[in-house]
């Protein structure tokens, strides 16, 4: 009782072991985790649940606001899992280690309300900006969302982005404040932020603690009463939206579909609208969150389909599946597939590991359709691949999964972005229509005399920060060639800034620098803003006059001198001394911008001299020079 009293009065002062003991013996938590048999019968036929009692929803929030914890409590409350299990939907090792959600996961929940059994299809989504495509495709199968906001941190940049993503899709938004049990939580302040930014009235905001399990019942009731049932028709021909896929080594590609019209059964022959391929359905299942095999899926449901697809290229995200004998059907309105923003070269540590690394990349891309793969070759690193990612965190997570899940040890080059180059008109490119080229590898950058105009990708960045860090953050954005578009006061302490920023300036270390100068309080989110004209040059690195493409980069002309000086100084520290002098040069448009020399190892042939004429010294040095020339 003493521990329980201490936990209630000062919940942030107890450690995790004490908290587990409190939650184990607390009557609130014991009542919260009641047995599944008291709520819903286990043997419910999913196909018998009418459309009016189906709800499809997602949880969206900024990173680390408690999405996965809330999903765990919803699963526990509805009896889908046993109590005490954490991060159920975060199945990857990298997700558990970093405490972030990388891959969207779904689960079908059964909940009894007013004597009727409801089917609630939950899709947990990532919070980091790099995985916003996971959010957008999850929302395509939903009619409503839970907008989760930390009662301590308040509205963050990704909260704003996710809100407008859901708002633009005409989804019902249920605002929820999490972590109200913390000592520093300020629900009134955060509710005022929601009202000033999104016109959400404080009376409609639910207040919960996902860790302690308080307020979960109110969320489930709000899902049922506020979110509408899906607008589907079970009496027409089968059509379903394919919005996610994963790879199983024994069953091939498993497709997660949202059935919009009709029904589909095991043994049916279906066809892909995009690839025109026919498949026979081998397995159907509902995720609870583990797979539960079923014989039929009907309109309004979300389920997993196994139909012997061999590769993820066949499972086109946003595709429409229909019965093979109904070719005249119109495709469902899907969503735009993700476009890679950051590119990097990946090479094996040793060319003997090339086959193993190729197999690991092929298997991993089956579970991550957002990664693009092109074959690349380097004189220094051998055969490899040029991979496209959604952001720098996406690249880090991908490389970490390569090491953890497949034991690969890749070499990864510096990340770059895709530039658009307009070439000067010639008879050949005017005839072929190739006067516009896209470059993501500095080695392919055209010569300066062949370029008419260069364009670089821009993003619209949103920064939310306490006002006391405003000066350093504005300086950082100006240093990165940002142009301010908007500034809004959220409340008395926080400001939202919007900047047009070049993508190449933010992919490497912008987020880390922003967190450093704001003591971790600022948050950042960005969205694509097209291509803008810019003055770009290729910064070539030469070692003893030999061009090294792996070290070259594409930079803005105003920063070429600074980056050239920084690069050659860094290389001077990294490259070991040799028996001959090494000249490190950085040049742009044929002009050397910076140079450093690495002095050679040199035997002191004059050490034995103790006197005499200077000609003896000159003779020994001449002999040494002749030997070096030889």
UniProtKB/TrEMBL annotation:
Domain Tr-type G: 52-231
Compartments, as annotated in UniProt: Mitochondrion inner membrane
Catalytic activity: GTP + H2O = GDP + phosphate + H(+)
Residues bound to GTP: 61-68, 124-128, 178-181
Primary enzyme class: hydrolase
EC numbers for this chain: 3.6.5.n1
Entry membrane topology: Peripheral membrane protein
Gene3D superfamilies attached to this UniProt entry: 3.30.70.240, Elongation factor 4, C-terminal domain (3.30.70.2570), Elongation Factor G (Translational Gtpase), domain 3 (3.30.70.870), P-loop containing nucleotide triphosphate hydrolases (3.40.50.300), Translation factors (2.40.30.10)
Key words of the record: GTP-binding, Hydrolase, Membrane, Mitochondrion, Mitochondrion inner membrane, Nucleotide-binding, Protein biosynthesis
Matching SUPFAM superfamilies: EF-G C-terminal domain-like (SSF54980), P-loop containing nucleoside triphosphate hydrolases (SSF52540), Translation proteins (SSF50447)
Family note: Belongs to the GTP-binding elongation factor family. LepA subfamily. Belongs to the TRAFAC class translation factor GTPase superfamily. Classic translation factor GTPase family. LepA subfamily.
Job description of the protein: Promotes mitochondrial protein synthesis. May act as a fidelity factor of the translation reaction, by catalyzing a one-codon backward translocation of tRNAs on improperly translocated ribosomes. Binds to mitochondrial ribosomes in a GTP-dependent manner.
Name of the protein this chain belongs to: Translation factor GUF1 homolog, mitochondrial
Record organism: Molorchus minor
